[in-house]
Amino acid sequence: MTTIGVVVFPGSNCEHDVVEALQSLGAEAVLLWHGDSAVGDLDAVVLPGGFAHGDYLRPGAIARFSPIMASITDFAAAGGPVVGICNGFQVLTEAGLLPGALQKNSGSRFLCAPTELVVASTQSALTCATTAGEVLRLPINHFEGNYTCSAETLAELQGEDRVVLRYVSNPNGSMDDIAGVCSAGRNVVGLMPHPERACDPLLGSDDGRRLLGSLLMAAASRLPA
Fold it and tell me: 214: closest CA among 122, 152, 142, 141?
């Protein structure tokens, strides 16, 4: 069975949602404390949403120094799938595992609403089971989700097909309508919308299963035959 670790920082509040969503897809999900020194024998890692360390200084700025991040960096360098959702995306950018940064939403407004996204690339650990151009409906819940980067970095992301998700109607001012990006190795992915909150049609959408299902497929590909 595919085993996925879900990191818990002080202030995380979406870890159990992620665990439940992954389990509903047939994976085993285990919680990892930020103070742990190793991720252990896992097939993928998820950094969930919330307010790690209260978002003091800026979101993710303290969490990047958590002991477990060194092990996650090594795991990613070895090709392990790593996904950061919302606050987890912010942590990955602060840790240098993904380029760019997340700043305050345009208009400095907290946003909590369903949002439509278009799959811009299927070449990532989070979109490998989707179709390019596919529109997904997922909720957003953030104050600092406005993605920004240098012009050079943006050109690199565009040229290497590393923008994986874009907003259909940009809610937060993100550069190039970016909702999610991946690393050069395509195994590290960050996104601001919450796929774990869109895994049951009774909650308004189950489109999140398309993304988390991709993660499971990417993780399973690392298992021995």
Answer: 122
Distance CA 46, CA 88 (A): 8
Residue type, 56: Y
User: What is the greatest pairwise CA distance in the chain?
Assistant: 51
| All domains in the chain, ordered by first residue | 3-220 (3.40.50.880)
Q: Give the model confidence (pLDDT) of 105-158 as tens digits.
A: 998 888 899 999 999 999 999 999 999 999 999 999 999 999 999 999 999 999
- Active-site amino acid positions: 86, 194, 196
Over the stretch 61-102, which tens digit does the pLDDT of each residue have? Answer: 999 999 999 999 999 999 999 999 999 999 999 999 999 999
Q: Which of 212, 224, 222 is nearest to 27 (CA)?
A: 212
